[in-house]
Amino acid sequence: MTTTHTFAVDIIIRRNKSDKEKALIYARITVDGEAKEISLKESIAVAEWDSKTETVIGKSLRVKSINNAISETRDGIKQKYRWMRAEEIEITAESIKQYYLGEAIPQKGKQLFDLLDYFSKIFGDKLKHGGFKNYKTTIAYIKAFANQQFNNQTVYLKQVDMQFATDLEFYIRNQPLKEFDPCLGNGVAKHIQRFKRIMNWAAEIKWVKINEIDHYKCPVKKTHRKKLTMQEVLQLESKHFQDENLNYVRDLFIFSCYTSFAYIDVMTLTEEDFEFTMDGKIWCLKYRVKSDELQRVLMLKTATRILNKYRNKETFQERNTIFPFLSNQYVNRCLHIIQNACEITTPMTFHVARHTFAKTVALKNGVPMETIQKIMGHTKITTTQIYADVDEEKIIDDFGKLEDRLDQKREQFRATQLRAI
């Protein structure tokens, strides 16, 4: 948008076609060489006009009234021009005329839905599949809220302020997109975070001057990640069910406990994801569906046993995947049954297996954080640290090892003293 203009307001007269001695007064608006005129609806004698001062000559009440109208018109047009600049409305001689006469529909700049659609167009291919899926949900919430709040009327970016963000947060908490799946806690905070990022991007591409909700606070609260103990994992390994589906879901869960694979990555494993070395080791090199980051997993014995159990079954070859497909919802329902049957207190979902790998299987058995990061396919080690929070059991284990080292040093010190004697 052009921000600098040549702008002028001149008061002129035009002679009456039927009576050349009479004239009508006009305000001429000129912007960048384009001129438009507004009639003041005032008629005077041509001889009364002073073209230098652009006023009517005389001191009568009628003359004073006309000159006041000229002054008010000139000032009114200039005020409208300044207002249009402040509101970033496109400035032309015609647009100033329409706004001054009240004939223009006020434009409030770019529209919110246009921004959301443009963001989806630009970042739909840029963002990883899992990340953009979350943005799609956030955008769906914003549109649903805006349609309800503004009664399906056009919403402009200038209307997105702290009050808008406050009401949006309340809407997400109380009116979920899916009635059976409410969005609470950190889920709400994540939606607000993504909306703020979209608005920051709008400021970067000059759709808005500033992001009015940049300082809106809806912080993500730190949560304790659920995981199973090693005793509970071993208990699952030894449990057998009459229902083969439960046995299969148990195997999938244990497989994830020893590999860190998420549900969708287990479901999409193929023979091509595995490498077999000469020394008998099996590597799984799998790009995560969510982030497209590579996971490098050296298969442990238990995971290898489960892999070999299912990889050669002919009934599963139709999908060209190692494990037969079950929906995530069905798997989690089965895990709830397994949890109760094994009297496990930790609520079991498939993602708990990934947490269990990071905390119980790897970290507590001395695997370095950097190695866990590579295995789990995290781009930042801070993400891995969220999974591997330290609890009392870990402190006890670490201090037990510390005590052993201190005892060794004491023995070495005593031995040195005895040799000196």
Verbal overview:
- The chain has three domains: 95 residues, no CATH class; 93 residues; 160 residues, Intergrase catalytic core (hpI Integrase, Chain A).
- It is 50% helix and 12% strand.
- It contains 15 helices and eight strands.
- The chain has a three-stranded antiparallel beta sheet with strand order 1-2-3.
- A hairpin with a 5-residue loop joins β6 and β7.
- α4 crosses α6, α8 packs across α12 and α13 crosses α14.
- It is elongated and about 125 Å long.
- The mean pLDDT is 87.
Characteristics of this structure?
3 domains, hpI Integrase, Chain A, mainly alpha, single chain, about 10% strand, about 425 residues, 3-stranded antiparallel β-sheet
